[in-house]
Amino acid sequence: MNIEMKNRIPTYNAKIGSEFDDASVKLKSKNSKYTKSYITFLALGAVFADLTGVIDSRISITLAVVFTLISLFTYWQKKSGGFTEQWTYTRVVAESFKSEWFKFAVGGGDYPIKDNLEEIYFETEFKKKLNKFYDEYKKSMHEKYRDYLDYVDLDINKETLAIRNESLDQRLEYYKTNRMYNQMKWYEKKSQDMKWYQMMYTRLFRFVLFIGIAIGGVMVANSFDWISIPFLQENDLFSIAIAVGFALDGINSADQYERLGIAYEKSFNELSDAIRELEDDKNDIKTNEKVFSEFVEDIENKISSEHKSWSLTTSSKNIH
Fold first, then answer.
1. pTM for the whole thing?
2. CB neighbour list of residue 86: distance below 8 Å, 6 or more residues apart
3. What is the pLDDT of residues 255-287, one digit of tens each?
4. Helices (H) and strands (E) in the chain, counts
5. Rounded to an integer, what distance in angstroms lies between the CA atom of residue 84 and that of residue 143?
6. Percent of the chain with pLDDT over 90
7. Could you tell me which of 86, 121, 94, 97 has the C-alpha nearest to residue 22?
8. Is 296 exposed, middle or buried (0-12, 13-18, 19+ CB in 10 A)?
9. ∠ CA(134), CA(140), CA(142), 5° rounding?
10. Which of 187-191, 213-217, 273-277, 309-313 has the lowest mean pLDDT?
């Protein structure tokens, strides 16, 4: 790809779908905040219920009830807000726009590079597909939440057409660099992040449970008068440790770090294999427009299978 083209063309036509990208980030943040809040408040309610020996019993039980009520209210706000579902619909349409744009820009899938007389047809079909994605999103959001983003710009800009008018070699290089490598790096980073969070919460969970079991053992010894620690007779620290431990496990499960880490790693490996295939001179991807078009379609299907799975698992209410 020549230097002039690199300077002229952005990495991705951000005008298509940028509103949905921004909205999905906010929805994800809200959902995560409410999830962690109600689990934390619930754990605090359990902790204060067992601290009657440390603070006045009336204050202790009052705080336990207050934190439990706050937890229930926060949980109700999370469910009534439907942030998980809204994020899913918004994220899927944003990724669908992006995938379709890359196919159109480089001549993949339903938009192969052919005679110039067919370009108007492909441009029309591209706009129809974007409108279809948007209508599906709008219908899903309106039926449940009566609120959705207004989509403003469906026009095909000059930068997009500039990519489409380049040679096969240049379009292939553009697609490999700005779609495949970028997406692969994103999957790699997200997979590493998810594994780190999973490891951190698992270790904290095990540590707290170990402390709880140790305290429980001491409490058993105390109950048989093998040792005498009056403080343990007045406070159920074992229950407190268990409540904190399962709160950590609840947050870990809600954020689905393990599931997402596996999914991102799988997508990373698939793109790595595809890049090796692309760079293999034994196939016709670099020389045949039809083969390249089918290759792009296959790659976009692999990428879209990851974000489309979100909509299939929305019923779990725990997608982050």
1. 0.76
2. 27, 141, 145
3. 677 878 888 888 899 999 999 988 888 888 988
4. 12, 0
5. 15
6. 18
7. 94
8. buried
9. 95
10. 309-313
